[in-house]
């Protein structure tokens, strides 16, 4: 098996405190060996073993690629007009999803596949190497299964979200729609999904209320899909306690948490409780208050950062920008934000092989065009990161990706 030695790493973030210092397990002047797409060795450059091939990243920082544990990437139709309307003062109520559902239902497989591939390239070009993708814009048996099948072509982290909103044609008979989501739709989707999710937001007229969400999540769990929950996005509500109750791997959004919610999440945390996945790009794009990450971290809750990239409430796929907001406005340190966007995302997906760079993990590298990870937030909005697969990318691609012939300017 061909081994590639990556050298010239000014700062290697391993997220493994047994290997390096601090929360991020940082090693300076480090090297890493990739063998068949897995990390075979990490350590000081001076002790690096000989390999078939060497790749010098010329004084840059390397970290485990972003794990974006919450996206809605299979869709047709952009909604930039809604963003403009929100910025002009219109409130967000969750209703715009219907537009995406109509456009997505009308798109061919080939059209959806092409736009999904473009989005995957966009994510990877910004350092995201693992991505979760939800259905939820089909809202019919064949349509939801189709979206999951397409998502499954690009990731193993697929989430059945028939319970995104009540399908438009069922609004006056909600119970029938829940029967469909927990019956025929679940049967058609389960073979293509790893997770099940529900948008539990009683304040939104189209999202699910507590009992509807509970029914959906329990049916999915009985079918072998582990729950994840969209909750407490627009207001305090039942989402957090439902996530704990059904053993969800993750509670996502969590923008509005009561003291009782935080107590419950902190109590559940040590026992495989929900990771709380904060999605600040949504608050940015809907002009809502940002969630308070500090409050959760101080209570020992595991926090992840994800993009929630979708055509309505946030169309940015930049994990680095999400980190910048988390640091500026949510009480996270740059180290905590990077951990949350990598190891935190992996925890939300219950993955041990990504989000870290330790022997045995996937060699999913992200290279920063700067000598320290701090530049990710310090140089807010600047595209400094590239995903890098040292073992399989041709050398020419690597050089183009990280501009290896130039040392970082900063
Ligand atoms: Zn979402």
Report on this model:
The chain is α/β, with parallel strands linked by helices. The protein has 2 domains: 3-65 and 356-402, Roll (Urease, subunit C, domain 1); 66-348, TIM Barrel, CATH 3.20.20.140. The protein is 34% helix and 21% strand. The protein is built from 15 helices and 14 strands. It has helices spanning 80-87, 97-105, 109-124, 141-152, 174-182, 184-189, 210-222, 239-245, 259-268, 280-286, 293-297, 319-329, 334-348, 375-378, 395-402; strands spanning 3-13, 26-35, 38-44, 53-64, 66-68, 128-134, 157-163, 195-200, 226-231, 250-253, 275-278, 303-305, 365-368, 385-388. Strands 5-6-7-8-9-10-11-12 form an 8-stranded parallel sheet. A 6-stranded mixed sheet has the order 3-2-1-4-13-14, covered by helices on one side. A hairpin with a 2-residue loop joins strand 2 and strand 3 (38-44). Helix 5 (174-182) packs parallel to helix 7 and helix 12 crosses helix 13. It is globular. Residues 396-400 have low confidence and may be disordered. Zinc ion is lined by residues 70, 72, 230, 308. Residues 70, 72, 230, 308 line the site of zinc ion.
């Amino acid at each position: 098996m061909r081994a590639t030695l990556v050298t010239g790493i000014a700062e290697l973030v391993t997220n493994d405190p047994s290997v390096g210092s601090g929360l991020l397990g940082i090693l300076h002047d480090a090297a890493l060996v990739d063998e068949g797409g897995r990390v075979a060795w990490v350590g000081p450059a001076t002790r690096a073993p000989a390999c078939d091939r060497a790749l010098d990243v010329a004084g840059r920082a390397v970290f485990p690629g972003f794990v974006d544990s919450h996206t809605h990437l299979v869709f047709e139709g952009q909604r930039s007009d809604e963003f403009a309307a929100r910025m002009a003062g219109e409130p967000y109520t969750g209703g715009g999803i219907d537009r995406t559902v109509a456009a997505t239902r009308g798109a061919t497989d080939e059209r959806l596949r092409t736009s999904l591939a473009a989005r995957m390239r966009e994510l990877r070009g910004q350092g995201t190497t693992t991505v979760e993708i939800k259905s939820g814009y089909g809202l019919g048996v064949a349509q939801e299964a189709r979206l999951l099948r397409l998502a499954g072509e690009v990731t193993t982290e697929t989430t059945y979200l028939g319970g995104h909103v009540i399908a438009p044609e069922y609004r006056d008979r909600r119970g029938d729609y829940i029967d469909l989501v927990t019956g025929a739709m679940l049967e058609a989707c389960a073979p293509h999904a790893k997770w099940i999710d529900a948008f539990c937001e009683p304040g939104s007229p189209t999202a699910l209320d507590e009992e509807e969400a509970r029914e959906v999540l329990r049916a999915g769990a009985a079918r072998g899909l582990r729950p994840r929950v969209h909750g407490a996005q627009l207001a305090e509500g039942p989402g957090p306690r439902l996530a704990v109750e059904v053993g969800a791997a993750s509670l996502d959004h969590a923008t509005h948490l009561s003291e009782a919610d935080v107590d419950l999440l902190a109590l559940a945390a040590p026992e495989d409780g929900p990771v709380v996945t904060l999605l600040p790009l949504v608050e940015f794009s809907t002009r809502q208050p940002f969630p308070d990450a500090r409050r959760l971290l101080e209570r020992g809750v595991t926090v992840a950062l994800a993009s929630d990239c979708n055509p309505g409430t946030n169309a940015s796929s930049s994990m680095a920008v999400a980190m910048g907001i988390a640091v500026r406005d949510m009480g996270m340190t740059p180290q905590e934000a990077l951990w949350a966007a990598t190891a935190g995302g992996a925890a939300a997906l219950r993955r041990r092989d990504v989000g870290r760079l330790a022997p045995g993990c996937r060699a999913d590298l992200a290279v920063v065009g700067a000598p320290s990870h701090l530049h990710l937030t310090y140089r807010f909005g600047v595209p400094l990161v590239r995903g890098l697969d040292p073992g399989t990318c041709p050398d020419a691609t690597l050089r183009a990706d990280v501009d290896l012939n130039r040392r970082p300017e900063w």
